[in-house]
Amino acid sequence: MTADALHPVTGLDDVVHQRVRLGILTIAHEACRVEFGYLRTQLQLTAGNLSQHLGVLETAGLVALEKGYEGKRGRTWITLTPAGTHALAAEISRLKQLIARVTLDDQP
Amino acid sequence: MTADALHPVTGLDDVVHQRVRLGILTIAHEACRVEFGYLRTQLQLTAGNLSQHLGVLETAGLVALEKGYEGKRGRTWITLTPAGTHALAAEISRLKQLIARVTLDDQP
């Protein structure tokens, strides 16, 4: 069986496809540089849950975390790495293939 | 914050969005009624792993499993329930929203 014959989901990477992480990557892609608290609000997560998912993405080299201060408050900013941008593009491309299959099937 | 202001991933259901389960649902949607061994090959899974994910989908009422025989060989067939069809449609709709956001951002 060639790779083309396999279903598009076999090409999805769980590190990127997981719901919360896909959210983090798309928001970081939209915003270039995004603050931890903003991500938490947008994705409706606890700080612990968000930290855990950011850890997975950082370990995979898909995001970079930068700690600093805004006034006296500690802040963490998240940016996509080039590998993260590439991984998000690959995920979106697979999702488009998947959607095309489901949608085609609905046509008469 | 209204529901519309939240990121599209907050509306994704992990039961449906998980990579393997999304594969099962889309193949079952394409094929109407799909045999266990076919799913296993298409999704490149072990029998145990596929069974586990089918269990999650069956518990959620999204697929129905039917056991029977083809000649002397035991077979399991999988069909989408109406709730499964609805859940897949909701997932696809959210993925389209997500893709639109990422793609829009790439425009000048």
Structural features, described:
The structure is a homodimer of 108-residue chains. Chain A has 108 residues and is of the alpha+beta class. Chain A has one domain (13-97): Orthogonal Bundle (Arc Repressor Mutant, subunit A). Chain A is built from 5 helices and 3 strands. The first copy, chain A, has helices at residues 14-17, 19-31, 36-43, 47-59, 82-106, and strands at 33-35, 63-70, 73-80. In chain A, strands 1-3-2 form a 3-stranded antiparallel β-sheet. In chain A, a hairpin with a 2-residue loop joins β2 (63-70) and β3. Chain A is elongated and about 55 Å long. The two termini of chain A are 29 Å apart. The mean pLDDT of chain A is 90. The A-B interface holds A 1, 6-7, 9-10, 12, 14, 17-20, 22-23, 26-27, 29-30, 41-44, 88, 92, 95-96, 98-99, 101-103, 105 and B 1, 6-7, 9-10, 12, 14, 17-20, 22-23, 26-27, 29-30, 41-44, 88, 92, 95-96, 98-99, 101-103, 105. Chains A, B: It comes from Actinoplanes cyaneus. Chains A, B: This is Transcriptional regulator. Chains A, B: InterPro entries: WH-like_DNA-bd_sf, WH_DNA-bd_dom, WH_DNA-bd_sf. Chains A, B: Residues 20-99 form the Winged helix DNA-binding domain. Chains A, B: Pfam families: HTH_34.
